[in-house]
Amino acid sequence: MKRILVTGSYGQIGTELIGALRKKYGGENVVATGRKKPPAILKEDGPYLQLDVLDTNQLHAMLVDYDIDIVIHNASLLSGTGEKNPQLAYRTNIEGAYNVLEAVRILNLDQVMIPSSIAAFGPSTPRDNTPNDVIMRPTTAYGVSKVFIELWGEYYVKRYGVDFRSLRYPGIISAETMPAGGTTDYAIEIFYEALKNKKYTSFLDKGTYLPMMYMPDCLKCTIDLIEADASKLKHKSFNITAMSFAPEEIAAEIKKHIPEFEMSYEPDFRQQIAESWPASLDDSVAREEWGWKPDYDLAAMAKDMLEKLSKKLDIKY
Ligand code: SER
User: Fold this and answer.
1) How many folded domains does the chain comprise?
2) How far is the CA of 78 from the centre of ligand 1 (A)?
3) What residues line ligand 1, using a CB cutoff of 6 Å?
4) Catalytic annotation on 142?
5) Are strands 199-202 and 48-50 parallel, antiparallel or unpaired?
6) Are residues 112 and 27 in the same domain?
7) What pLDDT digit, counting tens, does each position of 186-217 carry?
C-alpha cells in the first residue's frame, strides 16, 4: 500500500480529501499535515501533524520518517487573499511548491500531485469552453503561482523523471469546511445565508459565469488522477469541470427549494478577478487520458448542499 502525505489538510478540500483517502488506503497510510496546529476535534483515524512547507528540514524529515511515496500538496493561499498580500502568496504558493517538488526529486518519491486552478488562465485566454492547451498569462498573484507550479512541475518531469500531476480545479462547492479568501466562495456562502437569513448579497455580479464543481466530484477526480496509469498521461496538467453558472442561476436553483430566498448584488474587488478567468472549461483531455466524468450538475449539487447544511446548521427549509 502506498503512503500519502497531504499538505493543507485542514483547508476546504483537505478536510474532506483526508477522509476519502483514508477510507480507500487506510488511516495509517495517509498523513494529514497543515501549517496550523491540527484542530482539536479531529477523529483518531490516522496521523494529523503540523508542517510548514517553508521549513525544508521539517518537510524532508517528515517524508522520510513516515516513509511517504506520494505527496498531495494542497497548501495554498487563494485568489482574494493573494491580492491582499501578494508577497505572502509568493512565499506560500511558489516557494512552498518549489520545496515540495525539490523534496520529491531529492528523496526520489513515486509521485507528486499539486493542484492548479482556473485562475491559471487570464484575460487573453478564450473565455468560453477554454481548451486545455491555450494561452494563460494570468493577472493575479494566485494565478501566476499556479502557472509556475504547472511549468516547474512539468519541467521536473522532463528533466528529472519526477511523476508530477496537476488538476486545474474550478470553484469547489462543499458543505464541510468553508473556503477562505477565494473568488468562487460566493457559491458556498449563498447556501449558508439562504438557510439562515433567506437572503444573500453576492460579491460577484449577475452574468459572471465561472466553472464549478461539487466536492464529491473533486474528491473523485483527485483520487482518479493519482491512480491513473502514468503511461496514458500525455499531459500533466488538466482542465476539469462539472458545471458553469452565474450568480443569478444558482440563486434561481436555491429558490426552487426556498421560495422566499432573495439575492442582491454588490460586486467587490473579486469581480475583476472573476472576469479574468474562464466562464467554462473544455475538459475533454482529462476525459480522454484518464476517463474523467463528473456526477453532479447544478441541480443535484444544490439539492445535496441544502440537505447537508440543513442538518449541519439544524435549520429546516
Ligand atoms: N476557488 C479558487 C479561488 O477562488 C479558484 O481556484 O481563488
Assistant:
1) 2
2) 6
3) 78-79, 117-119, 142, 169, 171, 182-184
4) yes
5) unpaired
6) yes
7) 999 999 999 999 999 999 999 999 999 999 99
Q: Considering the chain, what is the average pLDDT of its residues?
A: 97
Taken as a whole, the chain contains a residue count of: 317
Same structural domain, 202 and 70: no
Q: Encode pLDDT of 123-133 as tens digits.
A: 999 999 999 99
pLDDT above 90: residue 309 = yes
Asked whether residue 11 falls in the same domain as residue 155, the answer is yes
What range does the domain containing 259 cover? 173-211+243-280+295-313
Residue 314 pLDDT greater than 80, yes or no: yes
The confidence score (pLDDT) of residue 41 equals: 66
Contact partners, residue 255, CB within 8 Å, separation at least 6? 261
Active-site annotation holder among 66, 142, 186, 214: 142
Let me know whether 78 and 190 are in one domain: no
Residues 83 and 193 in one domain: no
Answer for the pair 179, 192: CB distance below 8 angstroms, yes or no: no
Contact between 9 and 21 (Cβ < 8 Å): no
| 125 in the same domain as 18 | yes
Considering the entire predicted model, what is its pTM?
0.97
Strand ranges in 154-230 using DSSP code E only, listed in sequence order? 164-169, 171-173, 199-202, 210-214
